[in-house]
Write a structure and sequence with these properties.
Elements lengths: L1 E7 L2 E7 L4 H6 L21 E4 L4 E6 L6 E2 L4 E7 L2 E6 L4 E6 L6 E2 L4 E5 L1
Length: about 120
């Protein structure tokens, strides 16, 4: 067993991790399969107006897709933070050049959500 100290949001936790060998893994009962991961969103292209997350949170809904025309003030996506739903709006008229997040994704403050061309 190895002990590690992990800081999460300013709170320190001590964690013990057991190292197992390949033989132990082969004889261990099979674990339930992990849920299928959502397809990775396409990376936003270089250039254009980026729309960043104003705060950390979870993407509840993505209202746009690549190639869609948007006008200034259109709701691009809904970001849940601190039990509140925040509308992420288009800062300018344009076309969605790339969506960098998917529904259910957790984002940090400043993370790129999408790019407008």
């Amino acid at each position: 067993m190895k002990k590690y100290r992990v800081n999460v949001n300013g709170t320190a936790y001590e964690v013990e991790i057991e190292l197992i060998d390949a033989n132990a893994v082969a004889s261990a009962p099979a674990a339930a399969p992990a849920p299928a991961a959502a397809p990775a969103p396409a990376a936003a292209p270089v250039g254009g107006q980026t729309v960043n997350a104003p705060m950390p949170g979870t993407i509840l809904k993505v209202n746009v897709q690549n190639g869609q025309a948007v006008k200034k003030g259109d709701v691009l996506m809904i970001l849940e933070a601190m039990k509140m739903e925040n509308e992420i709006m288009a800062p300018c008229d344009g076309t969605v050049a790339g969506v960098a997040v998917a529904q259910g994704a957790t984002v940090d403050s400043g993370a790129v959500l999408c790019t407008l061309a």
